[in-house]
Design a protein that fits this description.
- Pfam families: adh_short (PF00106).
- This is Dehydrogenase/reductase SDR family member 7B.
- The protein has helices at residues 3-34, 47-58, 70-81, 103-117, 140-167, 189-209, 245-248, 253-265, 276-287, 289-308; strands spanning 38-41, 62-67, 94-97, 122-125, 171-176, 214-221, 270-273.
- By secondary structure, it is an alpha/beta fold.
- The protein folds into two domains: 32-274, NAD(P)-binding Rossmann-like Domain (Rossmann fold, 3-Layer(aba) Sandwich), CATH 3.40.50; 276-309, no CATH class.
- Helix 5 (140-167) links the parallel strand 4 (122-125) and strand 5 (171-176).
- It is globular and about 70 Å long.
- The mean pLDDT is 95.
- It binds NADP nicotinamide-adenine-dinucleotide phosphate (NAP) and 2-acetamido-2-deoxy-beta-D-glucopyranose.
- The site of 2-acetamido-2-deoxy-beta-D-glucopyranose has 6 residues, from helix 2.
Length: 309
């Protein structure tokens, strides 16, 4: 070996060692952050919310699961109680039943949560409903329904829990938005609008909460293999009931739940969980809007042809 190897090699090895050590410390810090934390998850009966319930429970959090469907929640809790963790001590899961689109119900649910577990460390606003339809054919009541569930629901729940977080001088608000909170694609108007509004609200909250040591994480996934498209609302308010190919070919909810767990542990601010094409689209919207708009116009034309045939 010449002199340069004698200098470079230890330097490289040292750097790798320090990097590994920092990563390990970060992992330990993340798991300490989640272990024993009270984590409230909305939409915990299915899809991503159900998987988040599992990963946070397994990480030692005290989970409070929310949804409208009591049977569904009981089922998830039953599944959690079957998990065995060796030396890990699990907290008994709780459930709170309410409809997020009913502001009064949200306020009383927040009181119920605080009564049940005393405090909330991490709130994961995950519940949501999708939409399919052309703007001209869509009743205004549908736009309102989507906004009530996807926007006013999380906003109301966050506002109801915020004073208790400020009082205990810390907390964490997480929201599951969507790639469609960053770009708007045709025939998803109400959904995309609700997610854009969500992004804006929680970006604002993040800045305002800095003095209170309350973190805000916005997560924007692309397609996930859940029942979201089946449960989507259409132009007249009826259920869409179709499993879209894009949804069926998306990421698994297990994979996305792991990403949520990591983002929360690291207190990330804004996380886009998407492949190269949607990521490119997000950048195009900002850097080359004309190109983005013509791509969307072409997409609308193609989808309309498909609908008319
Ligand atoms: N799947 C995707 O491709 C995708 C992509 C990007 C973002 N996301 C977002 O991920 C989140 C989770 O959706 P998912 O994909 O897991 O869909 P999902 O399987 O349809 O789950 C939606 C959850 O939201 C709950 N919910 C819906 N309306 C509600 C209401 N009015 N009050 C209370 N709870 C309500 C449902 O609970 P109950 O019906 O049991 O009450 C259910 O647990 C949503 O915010 C969605 O926008 C999904
Ligand atoms: C979709 O809904 C069906 C029927 O309600 C349920 O059995 C299944 O677990 C749901 N899928 C997901 C990914 O939540």
């Amino acid at each position: 070996m010449d002199l340069t190897s004698w200098v470079i090699l230890p330097f490289l090895l040292g750097s790798v060692g320090i990097y590994g050590l920092l990563k390990l410390l970060q992992r330990l810090r993340s798991s300490a952050y989640i272990q024993d934390a009270v984590v409230v998850i909305t939409g915990a009966t299915s899809g991503l919310g159900k998987e988040c319930a599992k990963v946070f429970y397994e990480a030692g959090a005290q989970v409070v699961l929310c949804g409208r469907n009591e049977e569904g929640l009981k089922d998830v809790i039953k599944q959690l109680c079957l998990i065995r963790g060796g030396a890990m001590k699990f907290h008994k899961p709780h459930m709170v039943i309410f409809d997020l689109s009913d502001v009064e119900a949200v306020a009383s649910a927040a009181r119920e949560i605080l009564h049940l577990v005393g405090k909330v460390d991490i709130l994961i606003n995950n519940a949501g409903v999708s939409y399919r339809g052309a703007i001209v054919d869509t009743k205004l009541s549908v736009d309102r329904t989507i906004m009530d569930t996807n926007y006013f629901g999380p906003v109301a729940l966050t506002k109801a829990l915020l004073p208790s977080m400020i009082q205990k001088k810390g907390g964490h608000i997480v929201v599951i938005s969507s790639v469609q909170g960053k770009i708007s694609i045709p025939f998803r108007s109400a959904y995309s609008a609700s997610k854009h509004a969500t992004q804006a609200f929680f970006d604002c909250l993040r800045a305002e909460m800095v003095p209170h040591d309350i973190a805000v994480t916005v997560i924007s996934p692309g397609y996930i293999q859940t029942n979201l498209s089946l449960n989507a609302v259409t132009e007249d308010g009826s259920r869409y009931g179709v499993m879209d190919k894009t949804t069926a070919e998306g990421r698994t909810p297990e994979e996305v739940a792991q990403i949520v767990l990591r983002a929360v542990g690291e207190r990330s601010k804004d996380v886009l969980v998407a492949g190269p094409l949607p990521t490119l689209a997000v950048y195009l919207r900002v850097l080359a809007p004309k190109l983005f708009f013509s791509l969307m116009a072409a997409r609308a034309k193609k989808e309309r042809k498909f609908k008319d045939s």
